[in-house]
Specification:
The protein is an alpha+beta fold and 480 residues long. The protein has twelve helices and 28 strands. The strands form ten sheets. It has a five-stranded mixed beta sheet, with helices on one face. Strands 24-25-26-27 form a four-stranded mixed beta sheet, covered by helices on one side. A three-stranded mixed beta sheet has the order 2-1-6, with helices on one face. It is rod-shaped.
């Protein structure tokens, strides 16, 4: 056999040595990458080439600790929750080891170039107690800083009732917010928009609410009314401010007019303006002004219940009107001096009667009043209203007839007296030869008075200007 040359031996040795070196390097690499990730390995976006499973998990933990959640609130306000605040810890589910096992370390020499991307669950745990504490420390959960939502409501702006819109506020719903933050953290979300997720407490009533709009309309209808009661020389008015003070809200939230308040207003109006049977200031034809005592049956009396009902009806309809109250009794003039300028005036001591129509003197005549000596004194000191007006009246008690009869106080009245001769009126006839209470009047004067006075016109009887109320009758007065 031909021997190998020395040079050939060197080549063979070199090749054998190189092969041995490559084989050794291969097994070294194979063993290394059995516990290390191949170059170019990217897990969950992290470069893990050459890392052991432990080192990868440490990097995943570090990545979790870099996590933060931005809370975006109303008004551009933001706050941040970090993983460190929550006590976040990586949870090993074996995913990293499985990726390591799945790689082909026998072909490690082929992984020198290129990138291999992998995803694995990066499960983690955090402290619920710490989350609650973190939320409690946030300014958006601070009750002193949070603005509560405010319902829309109806307000009087001075000229009308308007709907004031709701205010959203910055108060969070605690439970909904905690749940939303948990879900954001657990899903790895970077941002949680509190408004988009509807985490704020909302107003219960908004300005677009149909019932609220209807309420404003109703209140405006009620308060636009203006009811004026005209009493000739003075007025009483129910205006917007008054109506507002009568508005009452029921348990069902609806508004209505407080009838008792309206009735009280009517009662006060009646107290201020009723005159029936009350004292009257009266300027006599003799000159002095006297005070007529309470009594008599002349004057005005408001029907309070009926007036209240009518007032409420007008207000609910939103009316603007000048009206009269509903009356139980009516006089002839609605000014403070309700006697007016059409009336009969009788002075007992003067035995004289005046009659005025629209301020013009119609009659100035002597008369004969009730007989004083027999106790038939004509009642005096007050104002009475003419109760009836009858021509050709018959007095059955005395079987006598009169042409003109104007009763004003029961059986007491003004009439002609054909049984009295001309010239027998006035003077002191009434002391012993007077009537049974009536005002005996000369025929022509009785006729003139009868023609101008109507039922309801006042009759003023006074004893004298110094003593308006005279002696009371001691006998039952009769027509005659």
């Amino acid at each position: 056999m031909k021997k190998m040359s020395k040079r050939a031996k060197i080549v063979v040795f070199a090749l054998a040595a190189a092969a041995a070196a490559l084989l050794t390097a291969y097994f070294i690499g194979k063993n290394y990458f059995a516990v290390h990730f191949l170059p170019g390995t990217v897990i969950n976006g992290i470069d893990c080439g050459g890392d052991t499973a432990r080192e990868v998990k440490d990097k995943l933990q570090d990545t979790l600790l870099d996590y933060s959640l931005e809370l975006r609130g109303r008004g551009g306000k933001t706050e941040v929750i970090t993983a460190g605040q929550l006590g976040v810890e990586y949870t090993d589910d074996g995913g990293v080891e499985r990726l390591l096992e799945e790689q082909k370390e026998t072909l490690w020499f082929l992984a020198v170039t290129g990138t291999r991307k992998h995803e694995t669950a990066a499960d983690f745990t955090y402290s619920s107690g710490k989350l609650d504490q973190v939320l409690a420390d946030l300014s958006c959960f601070d009750p002193q800083q949070a603005v509560p939502p405010k319902d829309a409501y109806v307000e009087d702006d001075g000229s009308a009732f308007v709907v004031i819109p709701e205010q959203e506020g910055t108060t969070l719903d605690p439970e909904k917010t905690r749940q939303a933050v948990r879900e954001a953290v657990e899903s790895g979300a970077a941002v949680l928009d509190l408004e988009e997720e509807a985490l704020y407490l909302e107003p219960a009533v908004r300005g677009t609410d149909p019932e609220l709009q209807a309420e404003a309309q109703l209140l405006n209808t009620m308060t636009r009314a203006r009811i004026t009661y005209d009493f000739s020389d003075r007025q009483k008015t129910v205006d917007r401010d008054t109506i507002k003070s009568w508005l009452t809200r029921g348990e069902d939230g609806s508004y209505f007019l407080d009838r008792e308040k309206a009735a009280e207003w009517v009662r006060q109006m009646a107290y201020d303006t009723d005159t029936f049977g009350l004292e009257h200031e009266f300027k006599t034809s003799l000159g002095p002004t006297i005070t007529l005592a309470a009594g008599g049956d002349y004057g005005w009396v408001i029907d309070r219940d009926a007036t209240t009902e009518e007032l409420i009806r007008l207000l609910e309809a939103g009316e603007t009107a000048t009206v009269e109250p509903v009356y139980l009794y009516e006089g002839k003039d609605r000014s403070v001096n309700d006697i007016g300028d059409t009336y009969a005036e009788i002075c007992i001591t003067q035995q004289r009667m005046w009659c005025y129509k629209d301020g013009q003197l119609i009659a100035d005549t002597p008369v004969v009043t009730g007989c004083h000596s027999t106790g038939y004194d004509t009642p005096s000191g007050s104002v009475w209203a003419i109760d009836a007006k009858k021509a050709n009246a018959h007095f059955s008690t005395y079987n006598s007839d009169v042409d003109f009869w104007l009763p004003f106080n029961g059986d007491v009245g003004i009439h002609d007296a054909s049984w009295r001769a001309e010239g027998t009126y006035g003077g002191d006839v009434w002391l012993n030869g007077g009537s049974h209470g009536c005002i005996n009047t000369p025929y022509n004067a009785a006729q003139a008075i009868f023609q101008v006075l109507e039922i309801g016109d006042p009759v003023i009887v006074y004893y004298s200007t110094d003593q308006p109320v005279g002696p009371s009758p001691t006998q039952e007065l009769e027509m005659g």
